[in-house]
Amino acid sequence: MPTAKINKRSVDAFSADGQPQAVLWDSEIRGFGVRALPSGLKTFIVQYRNAEGIKRRINIGRYGVITVERARDLAKIKLGEVAAGEDPAVTVHEARKGMTVSQMCDWYLTEARAGNILGRKNRPIKESSLKMDESRINTHIKPLLGKRHAKHLTIAEVEQMQSDVRDGKTAKARGGGRGGKAAGGPGVAARCLGTLQAILGHAKHKGLLTEHPTRGAKKLATKKKTRRLSSTEITALGKAMAYAERNGENPTALAVVRLLALTGFRREEGQAMKRAWVHAEGGFVAFPDTKTDAQVRAIGPEALRVVLVQAEIAGNPHVFPSLTGTGPYQASSACFIRVCRLAGIEGATLHTLRHTFASIAGELGFTELTIRAMLGHASQNVTQDYIHIDEALKLAVRRTSDEIARLLDEGAAGLRRVNLAA
């Protein structure tokens, strides 16, 4: 087994090198090491023999989630427990056998943020996903089932939790200055059940549960959102946006709305876009991370105009910067609600603009496969040569974007004509 002083340089240089797994042991702390997998994932570990001479190996945390220095400190603590006659692996395992649902949820969030629980494609679960999980846990799961012992849960109990969330029994005012209530409903209820089932499944996989106690619980069926704007509504939206701009609406928020309409990007993809990702000369945006991993997405000239006219704020890398701090602007949803109210458009959200982009592309004659690629559903990996992005796809994006821009501008022109006539 290779040994070296474990530091950032040695860990970065270490790899599985074609083996199912490889371990680099620290030359200073006996039993401290880092394990590498062919996927590139690296995990800090501690290996020791307990008082009975049985070899144990426990994970400390995923490299990149915790630092080498933090891993060294944790390793010293665990090995100190061994020297005192304890067995950290057994202590942890036994303590977790009697976990309540609340404790198991906390365990899951801690382990997932340390990179010790893998999600899609055997990669650590994204922080954005964990934030949504944490919100469901704190708002709905813990209040309804937190005190129950996880191993004694029944299918009837978790399905009742789902019904209670659907019926609004856990509704409460949102914190952090956000308006409205977290009111539940069938969609939230089904996602809460899915989150809890996933937590229990991970607990079984990690040996905390002998069996998944609620396997087979039925999730509520939810209607897929298909709302999209008609051509008439797009024109009305353009008119309302022009009116809102003249009457003091935030120009950054309006720019985000227009960009989303012209690209079909997801809200956070557009709202949190960074300038470094935008390649105007090539007509694409290179997203380092999206809902479906890193992607290169074509962007039309009309949308690029929106991006390029945005004012820069020193120290803020975002196309649509917040006026405070270094983060992106975050209030475009509220703006969209206001302009929809002005336009007389009901039942629409910013995600409706994504469906609308797809609908217009379909009306222009583009195939479902092409539309999926335009929206980033197809494989558009950043390892592709940017120069060779499908020109047909660029053309499809440009024509769709141009048509939506035409409808929006037609509405704005209509408002100008009204003002001139007055």
From TrEMBL:
<dbReference type="InterPro" id="IPR025166">
    <property type="entry name" value="Integrase_DNA_bind_dom"/>
</dbReference>
<comment type="similarity">
    <text>Belongs to the 'phage' integrase family.</text>
</comment>
<dbReference type="Pfam" id="PF13356">
    <property type="entry name" value="Arm-DNA-bind_3"/>
</dbReference>
<dbReference type="GO" id="GO:0015074">
    <property type="term" value="P:DNA integration"/>
</dbReference>
<feature type="domain" description="Tyr recombinase">
    <location>
        <begin position="224"/>
        <end position="399"/>
    </location>
</feature>
<dbReference type="InterPro" id="IPR050808">
    <property type="entry name" value="Phage_Integrase"/>
</dbReference>
<feature type="region of interest" description="Disordered">
    <location>
        <begin position="163"/>
        <end position="186"/>
    </location>
</feature>
<dbReference type="InterPro" id="IPR011010">
    <property type="entry name" value="DNA_brk_join_enz"/>
</dbReference>
<dbReference type="Pfam" id="PF00589">
    <property type="entry name" value="Phage_integrase"/>
</dbReference>
<dbReference type="InterPro" id="IPR038488">
    <property type="entry name" value="Integrase_DNA-bd_sf"/>
</dbReference>
<dbReference type="InterPro" id="IPR002104">
    <property type="entry name" value="Integrase_catalytic"/>
</dbReference>
<keyword id="KW-0229">DNA integration</keyword>
<dbReference type="InterPro" id="IPR013762">
    <property type="entry name" value="Integrase-like_cat_sf"/>
</dbReference>
<dbReference type="GO" id="GO:0003677">
    <property type="term" value="F:DNA binding"/>
</dbReference>
<dbReference type="GO" id="GO:0006310">
    <property type="term" value="P:DNA recombination"/>
</dbReference>
<keyword id="KW-0233">DNA recombination</keyword>
<keyword id="KW-0238">DNA-binding</keyword>
<dbReference type="InterPro" id="IPR010998">
    <property type="entry name" value="Integrase_recombinase_N"/>
</dbReference>
<feature type="compositionally biased region" description="Gly residues">
    <location>
        <begin position="174"/>
        <end position="186"/>
    </location>
</feature>
<protein>
    <submittedName>
        <fullName>Integrase</fullName>
    </submittedName>
</protein>
